[in-house]
Amino acid sequence: MSYRTVIGLEIHVELKTDSKMFCGCSTTFGSEPNSHCCPVCLGLPGSLPVVNRRALEKGIKAALALNCTVEKNSRFDRKNYFYPDLPKAYQISQYDVPLAHGGYMELGYDGGKKVSIQRCHLEEEAGKLIHAGNSIMEADYSLVDYNRAGIPLLEIVTSPDLQSPEEAHYFLNELRLLLLYNEVSDCRMEEGSLRCDANISLAAPGLDELGAKVEVKNLNSFKAVKAALEYEVGRQAQILSSGGKITQETRHWDGQQKITLFMRGKEDASDYRYFPEPDLPPLQLEDAWIEEIRNTMVETPEARKKRYRKQYGLDEGEVEILVNHPDLCIFFEQAAGKYTNYRKLYNWSAGEILRIAHEHHLSADRLEPYILVEILQILDRGDINRGVAKEVLEEALLDGKNPSRIVEEKNLEIIGNVDVLEELVKKVLQENPQACRDYMEGKKKALEFLVGQIMARTRGRADPSAVRKLIEEQAHRAYYP
Ligand SMILES: [Zn+2]
What we know:
Layout: E1 4-14, H1 53-65, E2 69-70, E3 77-80, E4 90-93, E5 100-107, E6 113-124, E7 128-131, E8 142-145, E9 152-158, H2 165-181, E10 194-203, E11 214-219, H3 222-241, E12 249-254, E13 259-265, E14 275-276, H4 287-294, H5 301-312, H6 316-323, H7 326-336, H8 342-359, H9 369-380, H10 386-399, H11 403-409, H12 418-431, H13 433-440, H14 444-457, H15 464-479
Parallel strand pairs: 11-12
Antiparallel strand pairs: 1-9, 1-10, 2-5, 3-4, 3-14, 5-6, 6-9, 7-8, 10-11, 12-13
The structure holds zinc ion.
Residues 20, 23, 25, 37-38, 40-41, 150 line the site of zinc ion (ZN).
C-alpha cells in the first residue's frame, strides 16, 4: 500500500548582522566561549533589550523575497521555557502577530509548484550546549556557551505542501540560495546558521485526512533532512500497514545510527505560556522603508538560471552548478564580460576555479576573473598547453602575478619547433630500445610511455600531437634503419 506523504518545514535562519538582536554584542562565529555576552543577552536583572534595525531589515527582505505580506504592526512576545541554554528562562519571539505571513516560493523552472509560506517571525537564538561525549543521550555533563544567545533569527514556516523527502531537500536548497543571493544569511548549516525541523505525516491513498504529525529535530545537514524523512516514511508506513496508529510526538534524528528516536510527546503553544514582551514596544514599520528594502532585492535563483541558459547558452546541469555557487556566479559573470566562449569559460570556472577556491579556502569571488580570461586567450593562441595553463592559473591567482609574465619568465611556451623536438625524440628512442620495439610490435602503451618521457623532459611544454607524429616517424627509422 502506498501512502501519500505530507511534509512541512520550520526553518531557522541566523540573520547576517554584526551584532545581536537586542544588544550590541558581536555575532562572530567560533570565538572563545562566553566572550560575546553582556547583561542584556545574559538576562541580568535591570537590563533592557533594544531591537537591532539591521536584523529587522534582513528579516523583512527575506519575507519579501518569499512573497509574504509584511505586517506593519507586529509585536514581540515571551516564549517561556526552562532550559540551561536560555539565560532568561524565556525567549523573545513573535507569536500571534508575526513579522510577515501568507507568502510562497516557486519550485522548478517554469514555476511548476508553489510552496506556501505560512509565516516568518523574528526571534533570538538560545545559547549552545556542548555535551561531553558528543551525544545528549550519553553525556555525563554539558557546558554552556552564551556567545550564540541573542543572535537574530528568522523562523520560516511552510505549509505542509511538500510531498516527498526529495522535494523537501530541493525546497531547502532553493531557499538557501534565495537567502544567500539576498545576503540575508550565510546559511552555513555546518555552523548552525540555517537549521530545519520537519513535520511529516502519512495519509492512506484516497483519503484527505492526514495521519498524526511527527516532528523530527536535530537535522543538521541537507542530507540529514532527506535521510531522516526517508526513514520516517518507512517507519510510519510500516506501523500503518500493520494496523497500528501513529502518535503525535517529537523525534530526534540520530545521524550515526541513521534512525529517529522518541524524544517527547505532544506539545502545544499553550505549554509555553506566551505573553507580550513588556520591555519592547510593538514594531511600527513605514511603507517607504519596506519599499526601500524591496528595491534592494536581487533576481531569484530560478530567474538567474533562466537568464544564464539564454545569455550564455549553458545547459541545465551547468546552470545548476553555477547558480549553486553564488561566489562562482560573480566570478563567471565578470569574466564573461571579456571572454565570449562561454562553454569554455564555464568548464574552467566550474573545474579549476572551484578547485582552487576550495583547496585554499577562498571564496571564488575573491579571485581575479581577468587572470583566467588572459590565460584562456594565451591558450587559444596555442602558446601554451592545457597543463601549463592550469599551473599558471593557480600561481597567477594566488600570487596576483601577470600570467603572460609567468609564461615568459619560466619559459613555458609550447615547444612547437620540429627540429628541437626531433632531437629529443631521437634521444629518447635511443635510451629506451625496449619501449621502441614494443611500440613497433603494436603495443599502444609503449607509445604513451614514450610521449610521457618527452613531456617530462620538456616539463610539459612539448606539443603532444607533434611529439606523437615524430615518434611514429623516428621509431620506424630506428627499427628499420
Ligand atoms: Zn549582549
